[in-house]
Each structure stands twice: as C-alpha cells, then as structure tokens.
Write a structure and sequence with these properties.
heterodimer; A: 560 residues; mainly alpha; MetI-like fold; 25 helices; 75% helix; globular; B: 408 residues; alpha/beta; D-Maltodextrin-Binding Protein, domain 2; three-stranded antiparallel sheet; 15 helices; 11 strands; 38% helix; disordered N terminus
Chain lengths: 560, 408
C-alpha cells in the first residue's frame, strides 16, 4: 500500500492539471465534438484578438502579476533581513501568521469597506477634513489601472511569502552569517542580502512563481476590487464561459490558452528580473558597498508589514461591524444602531453552504493528510526523497493558473458524466489542498530525530507499529497544523468550486462572492465573517487537540 | 441539514440516471403531477443578488417541502444567462434527460433564446395549471407576450416590473427632477457624478439603455421588430450620442459602474448617487423597511412613460424534476404567495394576479398590504412603454461593450 502512495499523490496532482490543460487546448483550436467542433482552426484566436480591449486586459494581468510580486517580495526581504532574530521579529511573526488563513475574498471585502470613497477611512475624516457629507468622487475602488486590486493582492501575498521565507531560514546559517557580515562592517540588510538571501531564495523560488501565477490569473479578488472597463483577462474568461452563446466556449478556451501564455511570459520576465537582480547584487557586493545607513529601510520594511497587518485586521473588523449594523449611511463613523437581524435572516440560508464547506474541506483535507503522511513515511523508510522534481510536482497546481485548467477539467468531467457531483468537487479541492498540506508537513516530519525509530526497532516494534505508536503521536501537532492549513485552503477555493460544483454545491466562499454582486454590505459582512471564522476555528482546534491529548506529558508538549 | 446533504451527495455522485423519470409530466392531470413530484428536488436557477428575494425563495421552498414533500434548492446566479448556457451545453452534449436545471427565473432575451433553440418544456403548460385561473391575462398584455415574443404557455408569470426612479428628498440636488432620459442628461450635467447605471449585461442597466433608446429612436415602431443589423448604426445613433453626452458627467466619469441595483441603493444611502432606479415600484419602500435606505427616499417616473414587463419562470425541456418544477411554478402564482411577494416588508414585487378574480379572504389580504411610504400608487406610475424585441438588446449590449467597456 505504502509503496503506491507517492505515485498516487503525483497522480492526484498531475492528472487533473494535465487533463484540464488538454481539454482547454483542444477546444481552443476548435476541437470539441460535443459542441459541434470537429475541425482544427485558429479562428477562435482570431475572434479573441478582435475583442475590444483584449490587449489592455492582457497587460493588466501581466502587470498585476509582476508588480505585486516585486512589491510583496521586496517588503518581505527588507523586513526579514532587517529584523530577523529580534524580539520585534518574533512578535510580528505571531501577528501575521493568522493572516495567511484569511481567505482572499474576505480580505478583499474588508479592504473595500476600509478604503472605498464611501468606506470607513473617509467616514472618519468626513465632513471634518473633506468638507463634505458625501463620499468624494474618487477612483479608489475598481480603478482602471487596477491599483486597488494590486494593493489587495500585495496585502495577501506578504503573509504567504513571509511564512515560506521563515520556513526556509532554519536551513541556512542566517544568524551566524549575519554576525560575521556585521562584524565586517556590513549593515544588517546588506549582510543578509549578500550571504543568506541567495540560499533562502533558492528554496522559495517555486513559491514565488506560484504567487506570480496566482496574481496574473486571480478571479475573486479581481471581481471585488479590480477594474471593470475592461476587467483583467481571467475575469473576462469567466464571463465568456457563462455566455449563453455556446460558440463563446471556444473563445473562452482560446482565452484560457492566452492566460496560460500570459502567466508563462510573466514567469519568464521574472526569471529575467532574477538574473538582473543577481548581477546588480553581485556588483554592489564586489564593489564593497556595506549599506550602513539602513535605518530608513528597516523602519520602512517594518512599517509596511505592520500596515498590511493592520489594514487586513481592520477590514475584518469592519466586516464584523457591518454584519451587526442597522442603518449606517455616510458620513456616520459608526452605525446608528446594532442589530442581530442580519444574522437572524442570513442563518437559514447559511446552513446549506456551511455544511458543504465543512464536509468538502474535511474530506479533502483528510485524504490529503493521509496521502502526505504515506508519502513521507515511505520516504523515511526508503530514504529516498523525491528531490527537486517532486517539489515541482507539488507546486504544479499552484503554478498553472486555475482558469487555464479548471475550465478544461469541467469539460472533462462533463464528458465523463461526473459534472456537478460532490466527488468531483472533493477531487478538485484535493488538487489544491494537497500541495499546501505536503509543504506544511514535510519540514517538521523530516526534522524528526530518527533515533526514536531506532530505539523502537531495537525494542522489537515493526515499522508500522513505530509509526502509529511513536512517530505519529509525536508529530501530531504539525499534522494538525497541516490539516488546518489544508482546510483553510479548501474553504477559500472560489473558481474550482463554482465551475466543478456547477452551482449545485454552493459554499460560503461562492455565496459570499455572489452576494458581493448584490452590494448589501450587511449580508456580505455575515458571509465574509463566517468565511474568515472557519479557518480560525481550524487553527484553534489544531492547537487545542494536541494540548489536551498530551496535557499530562510535558516533554511531548516541548517536543512538539 | 446533514441528512439533506448526504442525500444530495448520494444522488449527485451515484448518478441521477438511476432515479430518472421516463414518463413526461402532464399538467392537465394535476393529481398525477403531485404524486410524481413527491420526493423530488427542484433546482431553481434564479438571480441571487438580493437578500430579500433569496429569503422569499427560501420561504417558498419550505412551503413546498411541507405541502408536497418537494425540496427546492435555489441555485443563486449572478446572470440568468449562466443557466441558459448550462441547458445549451447539455443539449449540445446530447444530455436530453436529467438536466441540471429544473426551473429558471427568466424573461426577455433569455426566454426568446431558449424558445428559439427549443430548450423549453413544450407543449405550453402554464395555462393548464390550477392557479392560472387567477392570472390577470385580461389587463396585463405582457403576461402573454414577453418582449414581443408570444409565451405560448412555455413560461409562467411570477411578477410585474416597471422602471421607477428614486431620489432622497433630504439630499436634493440642483434643478427639478428629470422627466425623461434627455432631462436626466441635463440634470447630470448640473449634478456631476450623482447619477450612474449598472453596466450591461446587468438587466437593470440594460433596461436603462432600452428606456433611453425607446425615447430617442426616430421610429419607435422599429423596436417591435427584430433589429435590422444593416441599419443599426443609423437607428442606434441617437442613443449613443445621448450616452456620449451623459457618461463624462456620471459617477467616476462613466469609467466604472455600479454592479447592480442593490449596489445603487447603497450608493443612494451613502449620498454617492442622487438618482437611482429599479425595476420594482416598491423597491425603495422595501429597502426602507430593511434599514438599507433612509425613510426620506421617494419615487418618481417619467410622464412620457417608462418600460414595464413581466418576469416569469420556465422549465427546460430536459429538467430532472419537471413535476416538482410545475408545483413550484403553480405555488408561485397562488394568491397566498403573490400577496406575500407584494408586501414591501418581504419583497414588494407587484402581483400578476387579477385581484378582482380572487375570493374575499384573498382580496382582503391584498387590500391589507401597506405598499409603503415611498411607493407610488398604480395610477401615479405613468404610461407603460413596451419592451423592444430581444434582438435589440443583444445588438445594443455588443455595441456598448465596444464603445465603453474596453477602456481607452
């Protein structure tokens, strides 16, 4: 059984992506017999290129992907290099970890409620500073250049990049290298950049690619914060896919191929950036620049990270506030009254989507954790790690844009008669849950001291017994944390749930995004609040369960 | 809740084919419809952007469960075209039975498109349902002719709609309230940024465009016929000249648009917009009752008339639960469900029934409705303009996206 685990895991990651991309490519070139397309043609690409504003949509997607990644990575680099192994660093780390689990849609809603012209910020300063009791006619939300959308994406990318960087740091000798560099007269940031960063970056490179891919092809955040005239490419694809004119399916497929190209180009440009940056850093290093005057940069990095955290937290607070708000018009800073009516009204229709969200997340996570454990156990027993190729497989579903293969996957399921089935929904969630579970579990698992196993074998236990009695109990906490991460990922899935679920399996996330179109902030508040609450509950359980189980074993607590 | 979930999961994963109903629904024999419907699940595909409508549908679902043992699942769409696309895809893939859509909230171009592609349950069934007897076919021509297309009983009326404008009497802009879309252009020039409309294909945004077109087109008779594509540039020119004049003075300079009419309601409450509109005369009263708008909001229409129509529910030809869908459609035009729908505290959507035909209890229920402080009386609503042929909308939406939806 165990022998099959790695193959099965690779199958789960690879097969849907491969089938999906294939089922996207064929219709793009005109081949889809079910819809009457039997000949290969470039016509659909011609139609696509003729679409008004398509060039602008493409540029928007490309710019969003590259700019947000550059900005987020720069902030993370500045902050980590300026503050690692300080008390401040540990505190900020504590503050920012929960942000990772906040679903993108909830964070975007919160941001909108905060910075929109009719949002909280302008309520605070109106009419005192703006001189008007009306919201200013400013292009803050849905601005044509997509700046608000980019800000929202940067805010969500920072926690992710920070956490992958933190995971990579222990495998370098950051602290000692830093001390040596500082002893040689280098500033903290320069010392880190010259000695440790190349090693860290090597480990987080695929995660950075995943960020680029996500930002070039995001749908939910773009729908909430992004420009409308025209929207980014991914949003237009989603619209074409739902067009009653069936011929649009071909154009949408061609568009999805274009999206794949855009993401690829973005990653190639990024690789160019990498080369450029390496050369630039090398030149500065070889020229002996020490960058001693760095206080502004350190403070800047810290301020930006704190600002991002504050903005997300404040946004979430506003969501909660709106969900309890009575009449609340501009420029009132707070609602005129509070009420539970909004909750009372939403709860009955909340129950169904909530059940779907919980069960889908639970089952997908359970399967993912079992698969990841089996792979890691197999690796421990054979001593064969998958190496960099295995890592690429794990990152594959995160690097190929969702719109590039989930549409195709939908056609594939339709052909197999499995469309809109719950099993298909769980499977597509698994594709995105498994990588995160694996990445979250593998480091603590590999760091486990193998001498425990040797002792266990010495006492006569076989490998299975050793796994169940020694290894799993000792690593219960990381396993629970990985489950919480997986569950959070499942809760946040929008596009795959919408397309593969075929509207029959609404979840909290799809309902929240659908309701966003209604603009009723009270209802959005309720749904987004629940959406953000679920991952928090998951993480709370991941902390509480091991603590309760091992309450009478102080060393286990320390070990975990 | 859990029980329902597992049953759905089972039905969906094991394959709907196992529980297929080979016989076809016969609305003429209502008892057999009731018997066949028991235990069915109706997937009602309806726009889900408005919380009070969603709650009304949930209520109808719970009544159907209690009375007939039929489960109603509201598939919340952000555009009805999505449901049409689902049925089209199923037909193309040869899935002529056990389709995913059982009932669609529909009218106009989507109905025309489904009828033309033979995607609807036929022969006509709506006029064979028991509650059809109460429907106001005598006074409401839009119940049998939907956007110039005869319904032929292939869709059942659900509610009436009339374009009505709203403003906040406590936050008056400058100048008199406009009395036509042309007036509105002048008004917006004097009140910059205080008017906007949702971008098509949102139905309320499309309605505004059709209202404008109906006012400025040279020969209104053209609108009742399918659009002549060769002449479209010329015939639509007055509309786009008007929009070219309107857009620079609109909210955000016409480069962003509200998502839909509930979003415009929020913007009126916040003072971002001064004039908004909806397709439901009671929308403002309903929003006041739910804390979404201040109680100083009032309604107005144009003396030259505004667009009006009827919205319907229709059953796709390959629906899985045809009988359950018939029961739901019939329940939706029951005096009880229609009176509840017209209550602005619930939804406020005008009835399609002829109240004079009802029994005394039901008449009293309608008479007892307080339509709300911001709702105009039926005689104050002004003349009703007919909906143009659906092909006009398609042509206009396309040209609109080309001109305004692609940036510059």
């Amino acid at each position: 059984m165990l022998r099959l685990a790695p193959a099965l895991a690779i199958g789960v990651l690879l097969a849907p992506v491969a089938c999906g991309v294939l089922a996207t490519l064929l219709p793009a070139f005109g081949y889809l017999p079910a819809l009457g397309g039997r000949e290969f043609t470039f016509d659909h690409f011609a139609t696509l290129i003729d679409y008004p504003g398509i060039g602008r949509s493409v540029l928007l997607s490309l710019a969003t992907g590259l700019l947000t990644t550059v900005i987020a990575l720069t902030i993370v680099l500045t902050f980590v290099s300026g503050w690692y192994s300080t008390v401040t660093f540990a505190r900020v780390q504590y503050l920012i970890s929960p942000l990772l689990s906040v679903p993108h849609a909830a964070a975007a809603f919160g941001l909108a409620l905060l910075i929109a012209p009719s949002g909280f910020f302008f309520r605070l300063i109106s009419p005192a500073l703006t001189g008007s009791s009306r919201p200013p006619d400013l292009f803050i939300l849905n601005d044509p250049l997509g700046l608000t959308m980019m800000a929202g994406l940067v805010a969500k990318e920072i926690p992710f990049l920070l956490l992958v960087t933190l995971a990579a740091l222990p495998q370098t000798s950051a602290r000692r290298s830093g001390q040596i560099a500082q002893a040689a007269g280098y500033g903290r940031i320069a010392g880190f950049l010259f000695t440790t960063w190349p090693l860290v970056y090597k480990q987080i490179r695929l995660a950075v690619f995943a960020v680029i891919a996500y930002a070039t092809s995001v749908v939910d955040v773009a729908v909430i914060l992004g420009p409308l005239t025209p929207p980014p490419l991914s949003v237009r694809l989603t619209q074409w896919m739902a067009d009653p004119d069936i011929a649009m399916r071909f154009v949408a497929s061609a568009g999805a191929v274009l999206q794949l190209l855009v993401t690829m180009v973005a990653i190639f440009i990024w690789i160019g950036f990498e080369k450029l940056a390496t050369r630039l850093v090398a030149r500065k290093r070889n020229a002996g620049h020490r960058f001693v005057k760095e206080n502004w940069a350190r403070l800047g990095g810290l301020t930006l990270v704190l600002l991002v955290s504050a903005v997300i937290f404040l946004g979430l607070l506003l969501l909660a506030l709106w969900s309890f708000a009575g009449f609340w018009a501009f420029p009132d800073t707070l609602p005129r009254g509070f009420t539970v009516v909004n909750w009372g009204r939403a709860l009955p229709s909340l129950a169904g989507p909530l059940t779907t969200t919980l069960l889908t997340g639970f089952v997908a996570t359970l399967i993912a954790v079992c698969l990841a454990l089996a792979c890691l156990e197999r690796e421990a027993r054979t001593g064969r790690t998958g190496g960099s190729r295995a890592l690429l497989f794990i990152y594959l579903p995160l690097i190929v844009p969702q719109v590039g293969f989930v549409f195709g996957l939908q056609l594939f399921f339709l052909g197999a008669g499995l469309d809109a089935s719950w099993g298909a929904l769980v499977l597509v969630h698994l594709v995105f849950v498994l990588p995160y579970v694996f990445l979250s579990l593998s480091d603590p698992w590999r760091a486990w001291d193998p001498r425990y196993a040797s002792i266990s074998y010495g006492l006569g236990a076989n490998p299975n017994r050793t796994f169940w009695k020694i290894r799993l109990p000792m690593l219960l906490k990381p396993a629970m944390v990985a489950s919480a991460v997986g569950f959070a990922v499942s809760v946040g899935q929008y596009l795959p749930t919408l397309l593969i679920g075929g509207g029959r399996w609404p979840t909290i996330t799809t309902e929240a995004v659908a309701l966003a179109s209604g603009g009723n902030r009270r209802v959005i508040g309720v749904y987004a609040f629940v959406q953000m609450l679920l991952p928090f509950v998951g993480f709370a359980l991941a902390t509480i369960i091991p603590a309760v189980l091992y309450r009478n074993r102080s060393d286990m607590r320390a070990a975990s | 809740m859990l029980g329902k979930f597992w049953r759905c999961a089972l039905v969906a994963t094991v394959g709907l084919g196992m529980v297929s109903n080979a016989h076809s629904a016969d609305p003429g024999n209502w008892d057999s419809v009731k018997a066949a419907a028991r235990g069915q699940t109706v997937f009602f595909n309806a726009w889900g952007g408005s919380q009070n409508i969603n709650e009304y549908i949930a209520w109808a679902g719970s009544e159907l469960k209690a009375r007939y043992g039929v489960t109603v699942e509201h598939v919340k769409l952000d555009d009805t075209a999505n449901a049409v696309a689902t049925v089209v895809a199923e037909k193309t893939a040869g899935k002529d039975e056990n389709g995913r859509v059982d009932l669609i909230w529909i009218n106009g171009e989507n109905f025309a498109s489904m009828k033309r592609q033979k995607l609807l349950l036929s022969p006509g069934w709506a006029d064979k349902m028991p509650n059809w007897a109460f429907v106001d076919v005598e006074n409401k021509p839009t119940i049998t002719v939907d956007f110039t297309i005869p319904t032929d009983g292939m869709e059942s009326p659900w509610g009436g709609a009339k374009l009505v404008f709203f403003h906040d009497s406590a936050r008056q802009g400058t100048g008199a309230l406009p009395d036509s879309v042309k007036d509105l252009v002048t008004w917006t020039a004097a009140n910059k940024g205080r008017f906007s409309y949702p971008a098509p294909p949102d139905f309320i945004g499309s309605t505004f465009l059709k209202q404008a077109l109906s006012e400025v087109i040279e020969d209104p008779a053209d609108l009742l016929k399918p659009v002549n594509t060769d002449e479209f540039q010329r015939t639509s020119q007055p509309l786009f000249e008007l929009l070219d004049a309107l857009h620079p003075n609109m909210w955000r300079g016409g480069r962003a648009f509200p998502k839909n009419y509930p979003a415009m309601g929020q913007m009126l409450a916040d003072g971002e917009l001064d004039i908004i509109f909806a397709f439901n005369p009671a929308e403002a009263s309903s929003a006041i009752a739910q804390n979404r708008l201040p109680d100083t909001v009032r309604s107005f229409t144009f003396s030259g008339g505004t667009l009006g129509n009827t919205h319907f529910v229709a059953i796709p030809y390959n629906a899985t639960s045809k009988e359950g869908a018939l029961l739901l459609a019939n329940f939706l035009i029951s005096p009880e469900a229609q009176a509840r729908k017209q209550d602005p505290n619930i939804w406020g959507d005008p009835t399609v029934l002829n109240v004079a035909k009802l029994n005394d209890d039901d008449k009293a229920n309608f008479a007892a409705l307080d339509l709300g402080i911001a709702t105009l009386k039926p005689e104050e609503l002004g003349p009703m303009l007919p909906e143009p042929h659906p092909s006009w909308m398609t042509a206009i939406e396309k040209e609109w996206v080309r001109r305004y939806g692609a940036g510059n």
